[in-house]
Every structure is written in C-alpha cells, then in structure tokens.
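Onboarding guide, step 5: your first structure request.
Type a short instruction followed by the sequence, for example:

Predict the 3D structure of this protein.
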Amino acid sequence: MADFGQRLRALRQSHGYGQRQLAEKLNVAQTTIANYEANSRFPGPDTLRQLADVFLVSIDFLMGREGWGQEGGSPWNESFRPDEPKKLELAIQNGQVNEAMGFLQEQLDASGNLDQVFDYYVAPLMESMFRRWQDGKVPEAAAMQFFDHMRIITHHIPSLFPSQRQAYGRDGFAVLAPDNEHDIGLRLVSDRLKTAGWNMFFLGSGHTPQRIKEFSAEGMPRLLCIGAALDTHVEAAERMIAAVRSLGAAAPVILVGGPAFRSQPKLAKDIGADGSASHAGEVPGLAERLLKQRQKAEAPPSRH
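The system replies with structure tokens like these:
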C-alpha cells in the first residue's frame, strides 16, 4: 500500500500546487509539507480535514482506505507519474480531445484499474478547474471552453471503460437541479454507475420538482442522483428532494453532489438526501451501501 506521503505528493502535484502554495493554504510552514511527504510527520485531524477540502477528496481517500489501487496491493502502477495529470489538462485546454482520449486509454491499458485512472486523472482535474473558476482564478471563457472539451471526453468515457453487466433492480436517474446547466460532474457520476452495473438514465436539466416526482413514480428507480454545481442550486435541489420524498416508501435512494456538499458534509442530510460523495468515484459504493440499508429496513421481521 502506498504511504501517506506518496499519496499527498501525487495529489499536490496533480492539482498543480508547489509545497509552498499548499503550505499557505493550510497556514503551515513549507517544511511541514515536506515532512508530511517524507513521512517524518503526520497531520492531525484538523489538518487532514483541511487537506481533504483542498483536494476535494475524503479523509479515507487521503489515508489510502479507498480510491486508487486494489486491496492488499500497491495502488500505484509504475507507469503513473505525478506530472501526467498536467499533460492531460494541457491537452484538454488546447482542444486536443483525441490526444486526451488516447492518453486515458493508454493509462487504462497500463494500469488495468478503472478506479485508479478515474480518481487520479479525471475527477481531480474536473474538480480543480471548477474550483479555480469559482475562485476567479480562471477566466469564465477559458473555463467554459475547458468544460466543453471535457464534455466531449466524458461523453466517450463509457466506451473506454468496460461496464459490468447491468443488474436487475439497479435502475437510476441522474438529473440536474433546476437552473443548473453544469452537467459534466453529473455525467461522470452517471458513467461511473453504469460501469458498476447500474442502468442509468441521464435526464439532464430543465425539469421541475413535480416532473421528477412523476418520473420517479412512473419509472420506479432505486436511485436518484441530483447535481447542484453551485451553492445557489442547493435550495432548488431541496425542493426536488421534497417532491420525490412525498412518494413515501416508493421514493428512491437520493444522492446529491456538488462543491457545497463537499465543504459541508451535513448539508446533504439537512436538505433531505440520503447522502453525498466527495467525488464521482465514491458514488457506486455509497449507492450500494445505502440501497442495502434501505432493503434491510424494508424487510419484514423474521419469525422465530
């Protein structure tokens, strides 16, 4: 298993931060970051939470308990290098979509590990660009062009990654909260669920809460994923959840996603959702756990 320092260094470099830049974000000395990466010091709980927020990942991901690699083995393939995510970013920024697609295919062929490719390359790159755009560090025109190129790539991602056979009782809907037109993150979630065997229907944007309630009543999905890209979309997502919850026991498991939910872990439950993942790679596992909990709760009591 890769050590914490190695994982932290790769995350820092894949997000384009130097040690000094990361230290400033955490309000610590640069030598502290160097010591973390050398495994001569280990961050406390508060710093771990800060790191998770900076890189938009979970603490479990930082600790190596989920994400890259397979249990019991090294999560790092020898073909992976910390500078490669930057190469992918530059290809997308320059509109070299075919080169970016070929790059992802090469990494999948080299690693044979979908989670490694997705979590190391695709998800951090998307989240990093979105964060920089929100913080005003990237001009809107440049960010929109980047997202347009990424939209083309994510459209083809299912063809890169082999899907498991779709299972009965694993139907799901993916929908954007009203007024949300930023669909790339939700498409990634939908695609990851497809590769995990879910039969996902991407409904996109422009749907009222009442219409999604009707869709859910008619289609009887077991899972509903709602994308709220901006903080201003959270209230709209809450109205949509309330409408679907009015179906009672027929309501699906509901997951929400977006930066607001990553920075406020309790927010998903506060607005009525069943949960929220820190990034798209976590969604299939979370969906399965919540579905099993629902099935267990719905099961009739055993007779002795």
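Each response can be followed by summary notes, for example: Residues 114-134 form the longest helix (21 residues).
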